[in-house]
Amino acid sequence: MLNINNWLQANTFHYSQFWDLLRLIKEKEKRGLSISLCIPTLNEEKTIGKEVVLFKSELQDRYPLLDEIAVVESGSTDRTREIAASFGADVYNSADILPDFGFKRGKGENLWKAIYQLQGDIIVYVDADIKNIHPRFVYGLVAPLIHRPEIKYVKAFYDRPLALSNEIRPTGGGRVTEILVRPLFSLFFPELTAIIQPLSGEYAVRREILDRIPFPVGYGVETSHLIDVYSEYGLEAFAQTDLDQRVHRHQETRDLGKMSFGIMRAFFKRLKARGIVTDLPELTSNLRQFQAQENRYEQVIHEIFEEERPPMIEIAAYRKKFGLDQ
Amino acid sequence: MTDMDLEQIIARVNSLVKDLEPYREMLLANVVMIGEIPAPTFGEQERISFLKQRFTECGLHNCSTDELGNGLGVLPGSEGTQTILLAAHADTPFAASEDHAYTINADRISGSGVADNSLSLAVLATLPTILEGLDIRFRNDLLFMGASRSLEQGNQQGLRFLLANSNRPLAAGVSIEGVPLGRLRYRSMASLGGMIACNVNRRVSQKSAIEVLNQIIYQIGCIPLLEESHAGLVLGSVAGGASFKIPARNARLKFQLRSDSDQTLMESKEKVENLLDEVGKEKGVSAHLEVIASTMAGGLDSSHPLVLLTRRVMTTLDLQPRGSIYSATFSPYAEKDIPAVCIGITNGDNVNYPDEYIEIEPILTGVAQLIGILLAIDGGHCVEY
Fold it and tell me: Which chain A positions have a beta carbon within 8 Å of B30's beta carbon?
């Protein structure tokens, strides 16, 4: 079964392997590829300015790796839109893209609509809340796609330790990854455990893959991508790049509970669809958490919908825009 | 170049701010990428290495690091008979362990060291690209320098080393600082940055070292020479003791003495040393002076052509020279009798605190000012006859 070790050897990179951006750009041009950057946002005024300035300056003006820098907005109430536009990003309101399909709140919705709105053969998604943003967050992810045509989906992970000895050290993702996603993958999709940080919000994907997979609009989007792409193309379609460190907001455990709930809904849906689990009951959308007030305890019910958008290729407007019916 | 050429330069400066707009994001990106690399004094290597990489990418010649860790690159002029030095210090007072993440919003960039001195280094890193893009050429060579070991104990070792060892004929120097726009400094005061360390031998005395230090501070303030208008004392920082319940065993003061006369400063220093000798006569108490950094008095007169042309360029851009004419940065130039000015690029505040920030909008005016000054120097307008 497992070709994990071979895959880890061949398809795990460190961003520093791609330091020669001129070479990367030449290869991109040779292969006739275009690349779009999508930054999904919701109230990110503290970090969006730096992301746009760095990517535009370094990866458009100085080294023309990116053909498009787009911020896809979920309806921020702060100055996110204004700041992103002032530094040269194309800013789109998610609700204005494919308006006939309505608007659903969630990061996955922005990622899905970006497939329609953006032009690139490769779309690279980078979260907007990264405090230590750097051009490596983009070139480290697109480089394997440029150099290796058989790779279709590149995930980021963040792992470089400050000191190395010869001792074996554990490596892995965050709390939700290690206590939920990797155990689930171990049980049902063992090869996917090789992806060190399956929930990282930074990844680069070829359009012909993105437009063929459904998109949960909420927390389950990354997990479902991995399962769907793996089921169709196998582990060989994936690569992962170590981007060193990512500094971002710390999330409270209760928020991680909501995330886990959304992930499990998307996960079980896929188990059922593949016939791995057959007699699941109808899954509730209510997550129950509890809080104490003086000596009383009360439950708090969070309604978490994990709706899914269909593969973009099924949308007539998309097929028309990209000439897929001809 | 003729006087007419100076008028042409002034006319060019007027249109420069608009011409610089396409380079704004590149400049801001360099501010962030440089500023997020920690560079405490004596630990600037990684930042200098990045700067040198930028110099190389811009096509500067002789991109290198010297023995003191200065980052250097040369933009060759059409004649290259002389060299104009363009320098910015690369170090900051922030430890490597402190947060160096920057934030950009619509009108300002915030972060440790952004004004002092990431912006200036970013100007160095971007200027070659700007000059090429705007087809601005020089007769003389421009030597770009990210200076190491400048602050506090660094005592401007990097700049001093270059000025002492460069075999290039230097026509003039321009040192740039992030803030404020309107800074025009062309003289250095005689100064002495020092640390007074007080120690109490607990076996002999139960006196608190803080009490001893307090007496010293009071007595330094009473030194007659320091009461003169052209001299001054800065009490920079104090530290000492271990707990509120135990008399401090040690205490230290970092301070600076300044004067526009080397003689006055020397006499003041002697008085401080005499004072410490007196303190040390008390049983179990000792106090020592360690000199951290020093500068000598000197520099240009306000009528020097370099000062006049700098004022002229600033006035053209509606900038009003402001603040002191003195800067410690200037001392190494004064020591070598090289005409130089120190200017600022934009406005900002909270310098050397973690909430340090710079304003984005005035930056291009600051860069236009710099280019104007360089063109005027290149045209031979800073030569004193």
Answer: 57
Distance from CA of B103 to the nearest CA of A (A): 6
CB within 8 Å of chain A, chain B residues 26-45: 26, 28-30, 32-33, 36
Subunit contact B29:A134, Cβ cutoff 8 A: no
Q: Report residue A319 as tokens.
A: 């097929």
CB-CB under 8 Å, B29 with A58: yes
Give which of B185, B172, B164 is closest to B87, Cα–Cα: B172
Tell me if A49 and B25 make a contact (CB, 8 A cut-off): no
pLDDT one digit per residue (tens) for chain B, 385 residues: 444 588 999 999 989 999 999 999 999 999 999 999 999 999 999 999 999 999 999 999 999 999 999 999 999 999 999 999 999 999 999 999 999 999 999 999 999 999 999 999 999 999 999 999 999 999 999 999 999 999 988 999 999 999 999 999 999 999 999 999 999 999 999 999 999 999 999 899 999 999 999 999 999 988 876 666 577 899 999 999 999 999 999 999 999 998 888 998 999 999 999 999 999 999 999 999 999 999 999 999 999 999 999 999 999 999 999 888 998 888 999 999 999 999 999 999 999 999 999 999 999 999 999 999 999 999 998 887 6
Query: B304-308 contacts: CB < 8 A, separation 24 or more?
Result: B304/B186, B304/B339, B304/B382, B304/B384, B305/B381, B305/B382, B305/B383, B305/B384, B306/B172, B306/B186, B306/B339, B306/B340, B306/B341, B306/B377, B306/B382, B307/B184, B307/B186, B307/B341
Q: Which of A260, A322, A247 is nearest to A289 (CA)?
A: A260
For residue B117, is the peptide bond before it cis, meaning its omega torsion is within 30 degrees of 0? Answer: yes
Task: Tell if the CB–CB gap between A49 and B103 is shorter than 8 Å.
Answer: yes
Distance from CA of B89 to the nearest CA of A (A): 23
